[in-house]
Amino acid sequence: xxxxxxxxxxxxxxxxxxxxxxxxxxxxxxxxxxxxxxxxxxxxxxxxxxxxxxxxxxxxxxxxxxxxxxxxxxxxxxxxxxxxxxxxxxxxxxxxxxxxxxxxxxxxxxxxxxxxxxxxxxxxxxxxxxxxxxxxxxxxxxxxxxxxxxxxxxxxxxxxxxxxxxxxxxxxxxxxxxxxxxxxxxxxxxxxxxxxxxxxxxxxxxxxxxxxxxxxxxxxxxxxxxxxxxxxxxxxxxxxxxxxxxxxxxxxxxxxxxxxxxxxxxxxxxxxxxxxxxxxxxxxxxxxxxxxxxxxxxxxxxxxxxxxxxxxxxxxxxxxxxxxxxxxxxxxxxxxxxxxxxxxxxxxxxxxxxxxxxxxxxxxxxxxxxxxxxxxxxxxxxxxxxxxxxxxxxxxxxxxxxxxxxx
Length: 407
Description:
This protein is an alpha+beta fold and 407 residues long. It has nine helices and 14 strands.
């Protein structure tokens, strides 16, 4: 599983770097400066690339450590008590030449010449008398093949999504983030003539302070489990990290829904509205507030209901293009759909995720293992802890609108 995680992270790094190159190439082609949205997207992608590189380095270090442990091999060690401690040979050949049978054969050859090697007589059974792998019991017939793919029926978790579209900023010092918020913007522009006093504008600011919160999970496994069933031990380690990130995702979703102060059901722009009309109304509300709607968070069941809506009272063509049509990019041409079970079914959320909010993190996901818990060292148990520190800052609550898409 570590190799699969590493392949996934490397693919994510390449995808995000390619996206950054695509954005800058498009700007160069048009001989223009990057927009605020493009700059924010590049910064978010580069932040995620750095986090992925840290995780790749951690996996590579773990693989290197495992390789060193495998390469150490074993030797015969003479203890001070004159007892010989025998441990496993490094190779099959070494095990063979150290075996008592081989040693006896060499001794016999030195003392009386080489022995007489003869093939034993092979006795075939009569026709109709089958040769079995064992005594009619497949359970002890042959050693089983170990499949390193671990299954978890009924326990598979929906992939993480929301953090991928968030603007992520790393906190390097302290345990909180402080940022200014505009509270007053009074202006009265008017035409003026030469030497006349110009109309003034009035601004006021406040400061918002958000303190980091920690999402953590604790577990453990025996040292024998790590040695004898690494696929299970790795599953435990990786799942602890997944649980932590799921907790962070639920925290992000709850914070965005709490910050939102408006809702849309489509009735503000049309009659006989449906889910798509409600989405368009929410997008319009974000634009009127000064934002640029970029993402809609949808429960998978709500996404499916929207995808199956048809024209002409349910008898016409699918609005989504139908089951055999190529996927279309973005609702109403511009909003990226993010399916996640972290949001409530029946109520989606449309927002400007580039400027409306920021996810502040101190480092990334951290997973540590230690014997230093209670009497774990004495009992050959390994404690495992995963955690991440982050805080959500919502700068423009009006840039997030809840959408009633039905249930």
